[in-house]
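Q: I have 758 residues here and want to know how they pack in 3D. Can you give me a structure?
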Amino acid sequence: MTSAPEQRAVAEERTDPRTAGGRAAEGGHPAAAVNGARRGAPPAPAVWPGAPTPLGARFRVGPDGVPGTNFALWAAGAEAVRLCLFDERGRETRIRLTELTHEIWHGFVPGVMPGQRYGYRVDGRWDPWTGARWNPAKLLLDPYARAVDGEFGLPPEVYGHVRDWPEQQVADTVRDDRDSAPYVPKGVVVDDDDDWEDDRRPKTPWADSVIYELHVRGFTRLHPGIPEELRGTYAGLAHPAAVEHLVKLGVTAVELLPVHQFAHEDHLLRRGLRNYWGYNSIGYFAPHAAYAASGTTGAQVGEFKRMVRALHAAGIEVILDVVYNHTAEAGELGPTLSLKGIDNRGYYRLQDDARRYADYTGCGNTLHVVRPQVLRLITDSLRYWVTEMGVDGFRFDLAAALARSMHDVDMLSPFLAVISQDPVLRRVKLIAEPWDIGSGGYQVGAFPPLWTEWNDRYRNAVRDFWRGALPDVRDLGYRLSGSSDLYAWGGRRPYASVNFVTAHDGFTLRDLVSYQGKHNEANGENNRDGTDDNRAWNCGAEGETDDEGVRSLRRRQLRNLVTTLLLSTGVPMLVAGDELGRTQRGNNNAYCQDNEISWVDWGLLERPEWRALFELTSRLIELRHRHPVLRRRAFFSGRARSADGLRDLAWFTARGEEMTEGDWYAPAATLGMYLSGRDIPGRDERGAPVLDDSFLALLHADAGPIPFVLPAAPWARRYEVVVDTSREEQGEAPGVRHEAGTEIVVPGRAVLLLKVVE
C-alpha cells in the first residue's frame, strides 16, 4: 500500500508526458522503481519522534539511555520526507519521518552511530512553472551534514530534470525519475565532543593584522618539508614545516580559500578539469572531504580542528572564505543535489517567472537570505565554524548579494542586522567582498561598522601608480593613508580597509609585472574567461625572458609593490607565494587549474633573487609589527597639534615643500608621505600615550632618478634610510644617514623609507 504522495507520483508519471517516467519505452525510469520495494534492502529500523532541534544529524543518548541519532530537516512545502541510511556495501534503508514541527521533519533512530552515511528523499509536487521541483528519485545531501563521504560527479542521473530532453528550452520542466543515490556523496553522522579547552585563540586586533590568503591544497601540495601523504590536506597545513614559513614571514592570519564541501561544475568535468578554488559550495557545515588525509567518514572534522589548533598555537588566526550567496546547484538546468530538491522555492530567489532563478552571482542561483530559514542556515553554519571548529573570522564572497533585501542592496538588510546583534558572530573578524554582479551591487565603503572590506580601489590605485597610469596622485594619497574618503564615517576605522594588490582572482604579483594581457588558454575557453582589466605592465617583454635588464626591473617593481602595501594604513593582505615570486604563467583566472599552475613552488626559495624578496617581505612585516605609526587605529587628522606646527600626516613634493591643492591635481609620479610617531591617537593598555618613531616614505614611479629635498624643521633634523627598493639586497641600505634640508637622489622606480633619527 503506497502513501498518497507515492500514489500521486505514480499517477503523474502515467499521465504527464513531461516526466522521464512518461518516456519509459524510450529509456525512462518509472517512479515506482524508486518508491517501491528494493531487493536486498535491510529491514527499516524503528524511528522515535525525536526533536525538531537542532537541525541536522546529531548523535546523542535517547530515551532509556539508548544511543542513536536525531535527524531534523526543514522542508516546508514537502509532502513526505524519507531518511535514507546506507551500509558499507551501499545498500539503502529508507525510513519515513512522520513527525512535523514548525515545518521541520524529524525523528530519532536508535542504534545509528557516528560514521553512518545518510541522505534524504523529499516528495512533493513537480511543477517547475511555480518553482516546485520535488523529485523523490534524487538523494539529497543534508544541508546541515557535518561531514560528507564521496565526491560529486554530474552524470545525468543527478539532475531532477531530463538533461538530454530534445527540446532544451523546456528540458527543465521534464522530471527525470532515475535514482541518483549511486552517484552522489552521502552525509556522515559525526560525534562532536570537543570542548576546545586546550585551544588559545590569538585574538589579534584588526589594526595589528596581516592576512595571508592561501589554498589548503595549493600551499602544501609541493612543500618538500611536509610528508608526501599529508600534502594537499588540512594535516599538511598543520605540519611544522608549513607553520614555520608562516611564522618566519610574520603574518597573523591565514584566509583559506573555500573549505566548505563543494562540487565541480559540469562544464569543467567535460573538459577534464576541476574546480580548484572551491567557490561552488554544497555543504555549509562540512569541511571539504578531498582535503582530508585521515579519511572521509567523519575523521576530516577532527583533522580540521587539529589544523586550527596548530595555527593558533603559532599565534595565527584562521579566517574562512565562505560562499553563502549561491550553491553548486546552479540554475534551472543545474543538478539536484540538496536545497533544490528539499524546498526550491524556500531556499532560492526566483524570478517572476518562477521557473527561472534570480542570479546576482553569475553562478546560476542566489540564496534567498531574506527568508528566515535561509538566514538560519547561514548563521547556524557561521556559529558552528566559530564555536565548534575554532575559526576566527570569515571573508564573505560577493557579500552584496547577501545584503540584498527583496531586490536592492540594503545595509539594513536582515542578514546584516542579524550578524550585528549575534553574540558570537559580532565578535569575530568579518570581511566583505563588497560587490556582486547585480544592479547596484558595487558597495565599496558602504558596509556598516563591524565590517571590514576588500578595497579594490586600493588595488587599482597602487597598480596604476607603479605602471605610470595615474593622472595625478590624489587617489594614491587616500589609499596610502587608510582610505578615509571611503571609511571615515559611522565610527569606522582605517582597518575597515583590507588593502591588497593581488588576490586569488587575477594575476599573481610576479605575473602582474611580467604580462600585459591574460594567458588563460589552459582553461579551455579560448582565453575568453578572466578579466581584461589587469592594470599590469610587463616591463618590456611579454612573459618569461632571458633579458636580465627586464628581469631586474621586474624584481624591483615587485619590491615596490610589496613595500607600498606593507607601509599603507589599513590591513594588508598578501597572497600565498607572492613573497616567493610565484607565477601562474599569465593565467589570471586559474580557478580550474589544480596543478603546478596554481600550487606554490617552494623551490623558488632556493634561488637568491626570490629568497631576497621573501626576506624583504618578512622584514617589512616585522617593521610594521614594531611600529604602531604604520598600523594606526584611527584616521589621520592632518592638523597641527603642537606649537611647532608638526602634524600627524603631511605630504611633500620633490622640492621638499608641503603639497598644495594644485600639486594634488598636477601630473606627478613622485610623492613624499610623512608619518608622525608623536601624534598617534589613543593610549596603550596601561593608559600611557602611544609614541613611536616618525617616518618619511618617498615613492617614485618614473624610470629616471629624481632629486628630492628632505623636509627640514620642524619635521626632522636628520634621517636614516630603512628601506631602499632600488637595491636587490637590503643589507646595505640601513644606516645611511642624511641631513634634513639636503637634496638626495631617489632612484628611478623605487621606494625609500627613511626614519627620523633627530
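Q: Anything worth noting?
A: The CA atoms of residues 184 and 325 lie 23 Å apart. Confidence is low (pLDDT under 50) at residues 1-37.
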